[in-house]
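Saturday, quiet lab. Running sequence design on the structure tokens for the scaffold JK sent over.
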């Protein structure tokens, strides 16, 4: 086999064929939204189309982060923005934003068994007549990072009007399908992505690797000393002549390192039936 020494720039260009370092904006899915009324301790409002926010009436929101690429970590989050449509502001005032520290469900939450409130994420958020019929934007980057890093469980967010606040505002819930202004959580991330097409015809990531420390973002290792083995393998289907449906096909083989002098090893090796290119150590 002929060895070809390739410069670092060429290696970067070759890697770019398979992976891309990019930023992505992902919409989390609103799974639960409801509210509680202190004066109605046994009532549940999980099917309500409106979420009224005022003193002694808390609003609760929870999002699934399952739409993020598999393996996404808190360190990859560059920003997380919560957007809530303010329908009406009957009385101006302020509210606070809390992390919710214990589990709850919209169809069972009641004022006599409220989930525990956790850390205060924002305080003194003001609403007045000018806030009506538009989205209120809140930065929840730190909280989403904590969810993804496992520092705190994802039990959602609570809006609480503090003692002394005269606020009375309404927010549409996800049950208000006519309005369509359900709460939104947009999460921006960065990482190394390798896109693929699955049977559901959706765009996801087959490989997501990111590292801000001194370790390896993506590593394939193999301890076998014999045989044709690889640390990381990318396969593409082809016919008997090595030709795919849309022309040539490619694979990616990760590092194979011999345990004794002799033989060969490569950082990245592309192989097909007609030609092999090896990047030497």
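Result came back. Writing it out in full:
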């Amino acid at each position: 086999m002929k060895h070809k020494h390739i410069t670092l720039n060429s290696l970067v260009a070759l890697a770019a064929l398979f992976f891309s370092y990019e930023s992505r904006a992902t919409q989390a899915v609103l799974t639960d939204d409801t509210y509680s009324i202190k004066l109605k301790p046994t009532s549940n409002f999980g099917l309500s189309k409106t979420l009224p926010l005022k003193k002694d009436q808390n609003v609760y929101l929870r999002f699934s982060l399952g739409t993020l690429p598999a393996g996404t970590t808190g360190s990859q989050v560059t920003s997380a923005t919560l957007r809530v449509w303010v329908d009406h502001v009957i009385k101006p005032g302020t509210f606070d934003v809390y992390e919710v520290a214990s589990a709850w469900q919209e169809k069972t939450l009641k004022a006599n068994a409220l989930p525990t409130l956790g850390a205060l994420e924002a305080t003194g958020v003001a609403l007045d007549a000018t806030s009506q019929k538009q989205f209120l934007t809140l930065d929840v980057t730190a909280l989403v990072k904590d969810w993804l890093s496992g520092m705190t469980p994802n039990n959602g967010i609570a809006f609480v009007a503090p003692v002394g606040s005269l606020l009375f505002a309404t927010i549409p819930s996800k049950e208000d399908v006519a309005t369509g202004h359900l709460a939104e959580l947009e999460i921006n991330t960065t990482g190394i992505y390798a896109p693929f097409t699955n049977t559901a015809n959706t765009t996801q990531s087959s490989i997501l690797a990111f590292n801000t420390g001194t370790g390896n973002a993506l590593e394939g290792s193999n301890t076998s000393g014999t045989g044709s083995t690889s640390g990381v393998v990318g396969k593409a289907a082809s016919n008997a002549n090595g030709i795919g449906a849309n022309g040539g096909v490619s694979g990616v083989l990760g590092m194979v390192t011999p345990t004794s002098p002799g033989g060969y090893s490569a950082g990245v090796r592309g192989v097909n039936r007609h030609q092999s290119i090896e990047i030497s150590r």
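Notes for JK: The chain has a mean pLDDT of 78. The two ends are 15 Å apart (CA to CA). Ask whether to fix the surface positions before the next round.
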